[in-house]
Design goal:
- This protein has 13 helices and 14 strands.
- The protein is α/β, with parallel strands linked by helices.
- It is globular, with a radius of gyration of 21 Å.
Length: about 350
C-alpha cells in the first residue's frame, strides 16, 4: 500500500514500505542456478521437441532419483501436467476421486474434464486436506482413478503408509506434486518410497513453486501410461519446440540437490512462523494457516506484508506461504508485527 508523507518544508513524497510477500510461492523469482542453466542452453543449436541431450540427461537423472525406469514429459504449467496425467488414467466416461480442496477441483477450471473428454471429478472431504483410505474404499466401485496432492492444500503431507493404503484400493493413482520437494524434505524418505513404491502411477513433479521459471515435469512410472500421455502432450500444444529451455531448468534444479535445498529453506521459515503464531493446521511443508482479526490484517497490509485470505478454514483465516528465498528476517518481521498489533 502506498503511503504519503509530508516532508518538512517540502512537497508531498511517496514512500513505498518494504514488501514481504507471503501470498504464494508462485510470486517468488528464480534461483540463480536456474538462470545460469538457461544461459548455457541458449548457446548453439539442439534438436527440437524434446530430442535434445539436456532432456535426455534429465530423464536419466530422474531414473536415478526415483530408482526406477521412468519416462518424463516437461510442461509449462501444473494444470497441464495434472490434466494430461489424469487423461492417461481416466476415459471420457470415467471419474476421478480427489479431495474437495484439491487444486484440480478448486482452481483448474475443469482442465482434467476437458483433457479426458468428459471424465468427472468426484470431490470428497477429508481431515487435514487428505484423502483417507477408508473413505476411498467406500467409493472404489464408483471411480476410475484417484488424485492426491503432495503436499496438500492444507499444508500437510501424506506419509508413504497413507499413500500405500489409498493405492491398495487397486485403482490408478495420480499425484499432484506442485510442492513435492517440500513434502519430501519433511518426510525424510526417498522419492521412490513416496511415489511408485507406495503405488503412485504418475507424478506431476513441481518446480515452479520452488525456484524454477514455470516448468513442471510429468514423471511416469508405468510405460503404458507414457504411451497414452505422449500423443496427448503433443496434440494439446504442450510439447514445446525448444524443449531444451524447460529441461535445462530441471537439470539445474536436480543438480547438487538444489530442489531439496530450496524446499528445506522454505519449510524451515514456515516452521519458524508456526512456532510463534497460533496455527490452524499442522505446519508440515512451507504453508502456514493462521487467523488474523480484520484490524490486524489491514494493519499488516499497510506495513507491507502480503498474504491471501483463506475462507476455506473459517472466518478471518489467512494463508502464509514461504518461498525458497523467504528469509528468517522476513519471518521475524512478520512475527514481531503480529505480536505488536495484538497488544491491547
Amino acid at each position: 500500500m502506498i503511503r504519503r508523507r509530508l516532508e518538512a518544508g517540502g512537497p508531498a513524497t511517496i514512500k513505498l514500505p518494504r514488501v514481504i510477500d507471503f501470498r504464494s510461492d508462485n510470486t517468488h523469482g528464480a534461483s540463480p542456478e536456474i538462470l545460469e542453466a538457461l544461459m548455457r542452453a541458449a548457446a548453439g543449436t539442439m534438436t527440437s521437441y524434446g530430442g535434445d541431450e539436456i532432456t535426455a540427461r534429465v530423464r536419466e537423472r530422474c531414473c536415478e532419483i526415483f530408482e526406477h525406469d521412468v519416462e518424463i514429459f516437461p510442461v509449462v504449467t501444473g494444470t497441464a501436467g495434472n490434466a494430461l496425467a489424469i487423461a492417461a488414467l481416466a476415459p471420457p466416461t470415467g471419474s476421478v476421486l480427489c479431495h474437495e480442496d484439491a487444486h484440480i477441483y478448486q482452481d483448474e477450471l475443469g482442465a482434467p474434464e476437458f483433457f479426458t473428454g468428459g471424465a468427472k471429478l468426484v470431490p470428497i472431504p477429508g481431515a487435514d486436506g487428505k484423502l483417507h483410505a477408508d473413505d476411498v474404499r467406500l467409493l472404489a466401485h464408483e471411480i476410475t482413478c484417484i488424485s492426491i496432492t503432495q503436499a496438500t492444500e492444507a499444508g500437510t503431507v501424506y506419509t508413504p503408509d497413507e499413500v500405500r493404503a489409498i493405492a491398495s484400493v487397486g485403482l490408478p493413482v495420480h499425484m499432484d506434486g506442485a510442492r513435492f520437494a517440500n513434502a519430501l524434505v519433511t518426510l525424510g524418505c526417498s522419492a521412490a518410497d513416496i511415489t511408485w513404491r507406495a503405488g503412485v502411477d504418475v507424478l506431476v513433479f513441481g518446480g515452479t513453486k520452488n525456484g524454477v521459471i514455470p516448468t513442471e515435469l510429468i514423471v511416469v512410472f508405468r510405460k503404458e501410461l507414457a504411451e497414452e500421455i505422449a500423443p496427448r502432450w503433443h496434440r494439446s500444444g504442450h510439447r514445446v519446440s525448444k524443449m531444451r529451455f524447460l529441461s535445462a531448468q530441471f537439470e539445474a534444479y536436480l543438480t547438487d540437490d538444489l530442489w531439496l535445498r530450496n524446499a528445506r529453506r522454505a519449510n524451515a521459515v514456515a516452521q519458524r512462523i508456526g512456532r510463534e503464531l497460533d496455527v490452524l493446521r499442522p505446519v508440515q511443508a512451507n504453508v502456514v494457516f493462521v487467523r488474523f482479526e480484520p484490524r490486524v490484517a489491514t494493519a499488516l497490509n499497510e506495513e507491507g506484508f502480503l498474504f491471501f485470505d483463506w475462507p476455506l478454514f473459517g472466518p478471518d483465516a489467512v494463508r502464509l506461504v514461504c518461498g525458497f528465498d523467504t528469509t528468517d528476517e522476513d519471518a521475524d518481521a512478520l512475527i514481531a508485527a503480529v505480536k505488536r498489533l495484538h497488544l491491547p
